[in-house]
Every structure is written in C-alpha cells, then in structure tokens.
C-alpha cells in the first residue's frame, strides 16, 4: 500500500493487468453477486433525476424493481446500491443481441439522453473504493468471474490503473492520477 494525498492505494492496481473481455464473461459482474453496485451519497439524487430518461433503455423486470424499491436502495452493509432483479442482477442491466450484459444508464448516456455515464463504482471496476474518516482506500477487487479480463489484460499488458484511467480521474482528479502514474513508473522499475 502507498499513500497519495488522502488515499491509501493497493499496489495490486499497478502490478496486475486487466481488460474487460465481455465476449468471454458476458458482463457477469453486473448479473452475479449478492449486492447491487455501490452508489455514492452524491449520486443518489442523480439516480432519481435521470430515471425518466433512462427508463426507456431498461428491461421490464428492471423497471418493475426500480419502481417498487426506488432508483437506489440501502444495502445490508448500510451503504447505497443499485436494486437487484431476482436478488442477483442489477436492475439497470440490459442485454444485447449476444446476451452480453450492458448498463442501461450508460446506454442512455451513449445515446445522448443524459450527461452522467453511470455510478462511479461501475466506472472504476475492478477497483473498489472505501471511504473512511480520514482516508479513502483504493483496492483491487479480485473475482473469479473476471479471470478472462485478467488474462486479456496480461496479454495486452494493460495494468488495472490504466484500464480504469477515466474512472480514476472522474473520482480523484487528473492531478491525483498523474501522481499515481509517477508512483507506478517508480514501483515497476
């Protein structure tokens, strides 16, 4: 671990490679699991505000869950998260013609209907961020479902922190990311 400003960062995001391989995993991270995607306090109002514009991009099952439970829910850990369909898949998940899970929020963004891409936790995956009183932990979340992403990242030689560059800049800013790159270069010597 190393410290960058008010963050404690795991070396694993520098040392491990990762590139999503949707043709192999089919977007399993959005459909498997026991909890929805984390939603930050600052994102809850956005989730409510964009719902009407995102709704046309969603599946009926997702719409039903969101309209019953809300645009976000309180998880078992007491944190906000996206609601789930059938206790596993994110209510915002849609499937393309190849049965690959995609984000309905991101689809609305890609179509120019909204200006917010998706929850930052999704943008950062496989990095997970945990806020503490004084510091924020930035860790690599290892999940067997992403083995194909690790293999593709290794083949292409793309470290996790580069794969999620846009998400890291969105969360922590460009200056923070530039400092991370300097640490990574020094660490990998």
Note down, in words, how this protein is organized.
The structure is a single chain. The chain is an alpha+beta fold. The protein folds into two domains: 1-29 and 125-188, no CATH class; 37-116, no CATH class. 42% of the residues lie in helices and 16% in strands. The protein contains ten helices and ten strands. It has a four-stranded mixed beta sheet with strand order 1-2-10-9, with helices on one face. A two-stranded antiparallel sheet has the order 3-4. Strands 5-6 form a two-stranded antiparallel sheet. It is globular, with a radius of gyration of 17 Å. The mean pLDDT is 94. It holds the Pfam family DUF3109.
Structural shape: globular
Q: In angstroms, what is the radius of gyration? A: 17 Å
Number of separate strands: 10
Within the largest sheet, what's the order of strands? 1-2-10-9
InterPro entries: Rv0495c
Family: Belongs to the Rv0495c family.
Organism: Maribacter ulvicola
Protein name: DUF3109 family protein
Relevant terms:
189 residues, alpha+beta, four-stranded mixed β-sheet, two-stranded antiparallel ribbon, 10 strands, DUF3109 family protein, Rv0495c
Short description:
The protein has 189 residues and is an alpha+beta fold.
Task: Give the topology, please.
Elements: E1 2-4, E2 7-9, H1 12-15, H2 22-25, H3 41-54, H4 60-69, E3 73-74, E4 80-81, E5 84-85, E6 89-90, E7 93-95, E8 101-103, H5 104-110, H6 120-124, E9 127-131, E10 136-140, H7 147-156, H8 160-163, H9 165-172, H10 174-187
Helix pairs in contact: 9-10
């Amino acid at each position: 671990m190393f410290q960058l400003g008010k963050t404690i960062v795991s070396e694993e995001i520098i040392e491990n490679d990762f590139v999503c391989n949707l043709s192999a995993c089919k977007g399993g991270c959005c459909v498997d699991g026991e909890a929805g995607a984390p939603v930050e306090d600052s994102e809850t109002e956005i989730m409510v505000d964009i719902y009407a514009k995102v709704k046309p991009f969603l599946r009926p099952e997702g719409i039903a869950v969101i309209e019953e439970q809300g645009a976000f829910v309180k998880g078992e850990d007491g944190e906000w998260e996206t609601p789930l369909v059938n206790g596993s898949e994110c209510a915002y998940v849609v499937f393309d013609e190849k049965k690959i899970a995609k984000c309905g929020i991101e689809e609305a963004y890609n179509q120019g209907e909204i200006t917010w891409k998706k929850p930052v936790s999704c943008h950062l995956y496989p990095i997970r961020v945990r806020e503490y009183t004084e510091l924020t932990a930035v860790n690599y979340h290892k999940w067997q479902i992403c083995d194909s992403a690790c293999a593709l990242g290794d083949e292409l030689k793309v470290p996790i922190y580069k794969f999620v560059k846009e998400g890291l800049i969105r969360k922590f800013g460009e200056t923070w990311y530039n400092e991370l790159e300097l640490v990574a270069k020094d660490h990998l010597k």
